[in-house]
Write a structure and sequence with these properties.
Elements: H1 12-34, H2 45-68, H3 92-107, H4 111-139, H5 141-148
Helix pairs in contact: 1-3, 1-4, 2-3, 3-4, 4-5
Length: 157
């Protein structure tokens, strides 16, 4: 079954993941500027920064790879299975977002931040699965072969 080019995967969970990212950024801003939320667990700032920068770099690099390939992530014309982490992950940008969110949480480890982190990870996972269904309908057996040799957000998983 071929999916028309204008039939993009659903974006509900993508919107939730964006909201979670914004909420984590707001919690970090509060941690260092406003101090409205109660103090949480103290974790090394440098560790949070390193994790966040690593996750952001993974996301940006894989967005660059898609752009260089001329692929619109929402409506791909080709199934991209090589370059960067695409060899082992079907959604390396979402994996990078998961790492980025973890880094933001480490920067301001508060109970609210933990809830937002977990919701963000859930949203990223569910959006990746929704996009997998779209890619399977669009690319059929080619996608299924890639799925057998790649993880959703982690290699082998």
């Amino acid at each position: 079954m071929t999916v028309p080019n204008d039939d993009a995967p659903p974006k509900f969970w993508w919107r939730i993941k964006i909201a979670c990212g914004a909420a984590l950024i707001a919690i970090v801003v509060d941690q260092f500027i406003f101090h409205l939320l109660r103090d949480g667990l103290w974790l090394p700032i440098t560790l949070g920064q390193a994790i966040a920068v690593t996750g952001g770099a993974i996301t940006i690099y894989h967005h660059y790879i898609l752009g260089k390939a001329g692929t619109n992530p929402a409506l791909p014309d080709d199934l991209l299975v090589s370059g960067g982490l695409y060899r082992v992950l079907r959604h390396p940008m979402y994996a990078g977002d998961c790492i980025l969110y973890l880094g933001l949480f480490v920067l301001a480890a508060k109970p609210l931040g933990l809830a937002v982190l977990l919701l963000g990870w859930l949203a990223l996972t569910l959006q990746a699965k929704a996009e997998d269904r779209y890619l399977e309908a669009r690319f059929g057996e080619k996608f299924n072969q890639w799925r057998q040799h790649s993880g959703l957000l982690l290699p082998g998983i």
